[in-house]
Specification:
By secondary structure, this protein is mainly β. It folds into 3 domains: 1-33, no CATH class; 57-276, Jelly Rolls (Sandwich), CATH 2.60.120; 279-368, Sandwich (Immunoglobulin-like), CATH 2.60.40. The chain has one helix at residues 268-276, and strands at 8-10, 16-20, 26-28, 57-61, 65-66, 73-77, 81-87, 99-106, 116-124, 141-149, 153-161, 166-174, 181-187, 201-211, 225-226, 246-256, 279-283, 287-290, 292-293, 300-305, 315-324, 330-334, 339-344, 355-368.
C-alpha cells in the first residue's frame, strides 16, 4: 500500500491555501476562507423565476399587483397594457429553466407625466441586518441578473430604503436585440439610517421599464440620499412605446460584497417554502373536515395549518364553488400566521356533529402575507 504525502495545496495564483507541516498539523491561509457564506448568499427569493403559484400567464395587466412569478410584483400607472408570463426562454448553459416576461399588447408611445412601470421585490428588515446599514461598516452589495429585450438602450435599477425614504439608482445598457446579456451592478453601502429589525418591508429592489417625467426629469441619483421621485429613472428607455415590445429577466441575485458570484441555485423545495412564507394556496381540495360543531348556534368550524408559517397574519380569500354537506357555504378566515379557519353557517350536521366543506368546481383558498 502506498502513502500520498501532501505538503501544501496551492491556489491558482501560486499562494498556499493549505499547508501541512512535518507533524501533520494543517494550516489554512485565511485569505481563502470566504468572507461571505457559500450558501444563502442571495437576498432575492425566487431569482430564477421557477416558482409561480398564482399561475404562469396573465394578460390585460394595467395596474399594480402580483400576477405570476412569486415574490416579483409590479407597480405603475398609464403604461399601456402588458401580458406577464413565466417563460421558458432562458440563457443557454446557465442552469435556468424559467424567466419572467413582460410583453406589451397596448402601447403608450407618449408617456403621461405620471406614467411608469417597475418590477420589484420587497425584502424584510430582519433579513437585512447583516448589511450594517446606517453604520460606518455598511456593506457594499452587488446585483447580478440576466436580461433580454427587443429594445436596446439605457435601463435603470434602484435600491429603495422604505424605512427611511432613501434611494440609490444605477443605469445599465441592453446592447443587442433579442439576446441574453448578463449585467452586474455594485451599490455602495449606506452609512445613514438603519433598516428596522422586523418582518416589515424595508428594502425594494426595483427594475424600471418605462417612466414619465414625474419619475425621470431630474438627475439620476447614483449615490445614497433622500429619495426624490424625479431622480429615480432618469434616462430610462420607454419600453412601452410599441406593441410587442418585451423584456425577460432571470438569475436575479443581490449579495454582500463588490463581486458577483455564480448564481445560487437553491433546491426547489427550499425556494418554494421561502415563497410560501408570503403567499400560499390550497387548490382542488376535495374536502375539509369541520369537526368543531356548536350546538347552540348550529355552526361548524375547524382550523387548518398553513404549509409553512407565514410572514404575518395573512389575508385569506377563496374562489370557486364550495359547499358543506348541509348545503351551507363555508368561509375561510385568518387566525394567525400559523393556521386559518373555515366556518360553516347554521344547519343540521347529523348525530356526530361532523361535516365537510367540499369543492364543487376548482375551489381555491389563498393566504397572502406579501410585503
Amino acid at each position: 500500500m502506498s502513502t500520498l504525502k501532501v505538503n501544501s495545496i496551492q491556489h491558482s495564483n501560486g499562494t498556499n491555501a493549505l499547508t501541512i507541516d512535518s507533524t501533520g498539523h494543517a494550516t489554512f491561509n485565511k485569505t481563502f476562507i470566504p468572507a461571505n457564506p457559500l450558501t444563502n448568499r442571495n437576498l432575492i427569493i425566487n431569482g430564477d423565476m421557477r416558482i409561480a403559484q398564482r399561475g404562469t400567464s396573465v394578460s390585460g395587466i394595467t395596474s399594480n399587483n402580483y400576477y405570476t412569478v412569486d415574490r416579483f410584483d409590479i407597480g405603475g400607472s398609464s403604461f399601456g397594457t402588458v401580458t406577464q408570463s413565466q417563460d421558458t426562454d432562458v440563457p443557454t448553459g446557465q442552469g435556468f429553466a424559467n424567466s419572467i416576461k413582460f410583453l406589451w399588447t397596448t402601447a403608450s408611445a407618449s408617456l403621461s407625466t405620471n406614467a411608469f412601470l417597475q418590477m420589484h421585490q420587497s425584502i424584510e428588515g430582519q433579513m437585512l441586518q447583516h448589511l450594517k446599514k446606517g453604520t460606518a461598516n455598511a456593506e457594499t452589495v452587488t446585483l447580478s441578473f440576466w436580461v433580454k429585450s427587443n429594445k436596446t438602450g439605457t435601463y435603470i435599477v434602484n435600491l429603495w430604503d422604505i424605512d427611511n425614504t432613501r434611494l440609490i439608482a444605477k443605469a445599465y445598457t441592453i446592447n443587442a436585440v433579442d439576446t441574453w446579456e448578463k449585467k452586474t451592478i455594485t451599490f455602495a453601502g449606506d452609512t445613514v439610517a438603519s433598516f428596522d429589525n422586523d418582518n416589515g418591508r424595508s428594502l425594494d429592489l426595483t427594475f424600471g421599464l418605462c417612466a414619465g417625467t414625474d419619475n425621470s426629469s431630474g438627475t439620476l441619483q447614483t449615490t445614497w440620499g433622500s429619495a426624490v421621485a424625479i431622480n429615480r429613472y432618469v434616462g430610462q428607455v420607454n419600453l412601452a412605446d410599441a406593441v410587442n415590445n418585451y423584456i425577460n429577466f432571470t438569475g436575479v441575485q443581490l449579495e454582500v460584497g463588490d463581486t458577483a458570484t455564480p448564481f445560487e441555485h437553491r433546491p426547489y423545495d427550499m425556494e418554494l417554502a421561502r415563497c410560501q412564507r408570503y403567499y400560499q394556496k390550497f387548490n382542488n381540495i376535495l374536502s375539509f373536515p369541520l369537526s368543531r360543531y356548536n350546538n347552540t348556534t348550529g355552526t361548524a368550524f375547524n382550523s387548518i395549518p398553513y404549509i409553512v408559517p407565514m410572514r404575518a397574519n395573512p389575508t385569506v380569500s377563496q374562489s370557486g364553488s364550495w359547499e358543506s354537506t348541509t348545503g351551507k357555504a363555508g368561509t375561510p378566515t385568518s387566525l394567525t400566521g400559523y393556521n386559518f379557519g373555515i366556518r360553516v353557517g347554521a344547519g343540521s350536521v347529523g348525530a356526530n356533529g361532523v361535516l365537510y366543506l367540499e369543492t364543487l368546481s376548482d375551489g381555491e383558498i389563498q393566504a397572502n402575507a406579501e410585503l
